[in-house]
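SAMPLE LOG
Freezer: B-3
Tube label: C17
Construct: single chain, 946 aa
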Amino acid sequence: MPSRTIGRLFRRSLKRGPLLAGALAALLAVGEAAARTVRIVQAQSLELRRIDEQEIVIISGGPEGGPNGGLVELRVDDDVVRAARVEYNRTRRTLTLVGQATYRTARDGQDLRGENLVVDLGSEELTGEDVLISDGDIEIRGQQVERIPGQLRATGGYFTPCAKCGRTPNDYAFRAERLIVYPGDRLIAYRAQFLIVDVPVLYLPIVVLPLNEPERQPRFSVGSGDPDGLTVLADLPFSIGTNTLGTTLLRYYENREPSIGLGVDLRSYSPLPYVDRVDLYTLANPKPFAADGTRQPGYDIDLDFSVRGRVPLSLAVRDLDYSLNVRRRDIGRSQTDPDRDVTTVDFRAAVEYPLFSAQLTYLDRFGPEPKTALYAPLREPELVIDPRPYSRGTFTVDTRLTAGRYTAASNPLSRSATAQGVNITTTRLEEQHSITYSAQPWTNADFSVSNTFTGRYYGTGARTVNLDISGRLTQRFNATNTLTARASYIRVEGTSPFAFDALPGQRLSAPIGLDLYTVPVKDTTFTVGYSRDLFLPEDQQPATAFGVTVNRKPVNLNFGLRHNFSTGELESTSFNLTLSDPTADQVTVVPARPARPATETTAAVPARPETVTRSSNWPAPNLTLTATGGYNRATGLQPFTVKATVTGDIRSNYFSVSASHDIETPRLRSLSAEFAGATRTDTVINPISFSGSETWNLIDNRFSGRYSATWRGEYTAAHTHELQVQAPGDERPNGTAFFSVGTAAGRATNWQLTYGGPFDVERWGYTRPTLTGSVRATRPGQSLALSATVNTPGLEQQRTEVARADLNADWQFGTRFALSGRAAYSRTRTGTFPEDIATDTLILDPVRVGIAIGDGPRPGAYVTAALRQTFTWVDGERLNPAPLAPVIGLTIDRCCWALQAEIDMSLRRYRLGISLPGSSSYPLFDYGVGGLNIPLLPGPLNPGNR
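STRUCTURE (predicted):
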């Protein structure tokens, strides 16, 4: 097709709509630039030209302020391109962004802005002049920029980590002759000048700035103290290619022997064929000083090495999966720890074929011999072969074979195993199978038989067997009646040399039995379960169980009985009887039918009167009666309990009374009543709900009750008591009683007021009552909690005074001021009234004030003050008087660096530190009662070491 025709076609498509233009442009890109796909999202006009045997598509955005904003927007795969004009060379597969343009990379998250950017779609390279690059928190400018996959190069560059602050000039920056950026990893600047507020102050031959995620940023820590002296800890990240990330671990301890420790933390993705991931963490750290202060030469070693991968096999259902883990942990362990100097190796591989699956496990430990029992066995190695289950009709066979060599704790029940020590090593072969078969020998009959077996055979000559053969035949009669005959043979024998697979005990059993389930009449079921063990003596045979269930309105009865015919004793019996029918007042009316005479084709139909049928004969639909009781041969007769419940028209309204009678004594055990109700009218007009319960324990002569009423779901009044009527002369505390009123729990603003305490029934009064109130209010950015307890006069308490008060507040005033804190006051007394002495304590833990200083939406400095102090008064006089001793802090936050200063009045200590991106805080100096300490200065240069 001639170029003019193509150009006219594009212009027409653009006039018709941007979607058609995008589709046509995509057709041009697909196939010719197979590496990358170009799509037009927004444009004003397209034109195809042929210049020097090269086809060039010119895409224009139109004048500024036009319908498209005067810009062209393209998608190069997931990258976004915006420019006033784009020249797409189809022959060379390049994009030329004419004038000011923007190119955003989706993979690296970079924004590149510059003049006349050129993008090579084949090699994914980009070049340009006067380019501004934004990479996360760093801003880079370059006179000439060249971008290739995985790397960005600039000459005449300027970069600063302060770009996100938005301040001009930047607090500090670098100007370099040449820059190399590895996106997401690091920036390297050669022959750089260090600038403070854009003024050169220092020349550096090379500067390396990490661009990693926070967990991969370099870490540097310097400190000093006894007994290690100067301590330097450094974590330096690195990368190898595009699939390996790591961190070099450097440790220096001035007084340890040796002083230097080295390590690496590395992870690699698909480094080799059949390897998915490799993780390595290892650190050789100088041994710390012993508890008695003596120096321990040598290294503590931590090692954690793991490999995961897959190996394709031609006949396997899925790839062979394998994993290897090697672990050793010495750092932090004491010299007597049994796991010290121990390396564990864990290798696992699994493969699945159409006929079977297999697993290989090798789990071992290297180092000193274990002195304690290994309850988790070592598998040196273990092979598991699991064939697919075999099925033919209703006959199935499932087998599993396990073979291996094991080291594990000795079975204390095996003399030969315990003679070899706390652990034993030997081979083991385990065979498991399960065989099942089912059939229907005749009508309404089901037959099934199963055989499960587990046999273990050990290199010591020992063996264990767990065999279970069982069969069941069920005959159904009239769909609801069944008779089941069952028989089993169970054999458990042998002693394992290992504790981890020891059998619970020896067993030889052959239980047989009959189970009958029948419905003799409607709504009634009767069950019988009879069992007999052919290997047990007569006096150890199980009891026969009988059960009756009746569910016919208004009766619901469950009765169970267990009788041992071998011993002639009743083992247990229980019943639960309920009489109720909520639908008893519902009737079914069948209308009357007049008589009809006979005709030639039909017989005469007699008249039928109207009939009324009730759902049951229960006369009180709102009344429920319940009775429970029973007998157990070990404990005797169980208490007989009766309960009556009356339910209102609203099902949540009810009143019930119950009584429990001890038949053996005989005497009443307890009487109780319970009720709950809610008004029937609208909840706004009459919104009251209430509930309560009272129990009289006649054995202890104790009354326990609770009552509550709620209005509109917001306010609740409640009372609880537990009172005991004591015998004369009994001085035990005989009860408590509380009254409370407040808002319902869970509200943003709630309050509670409670009065009560110990209560003497004989003198009928409170002995030491208290009045407790609490208020809690919560709003966005604000919370206030206040509680107080006041002692009030009682039989054994004459004063009215505040015993405890707590205040907890958190208040945020806009974005510049915050106040928070907790204050607790308490009073205790010693001695005898009226000569007792009061001790008052006020605890501030802590009270904090924060003020943000600076213009703009983000403050530049923060001033904080925190006070943690305890004040004590005895009989009105303060103990150990001391002035207020707050901790005052100042933080200057400049986004790319922060300065922190602290004054601790209580310790008389002054500290100053600085924080830089990707690192923790560097302490500059610490001045206190011990003198001046400058941690960054080594050895004798630090005044703190003198």
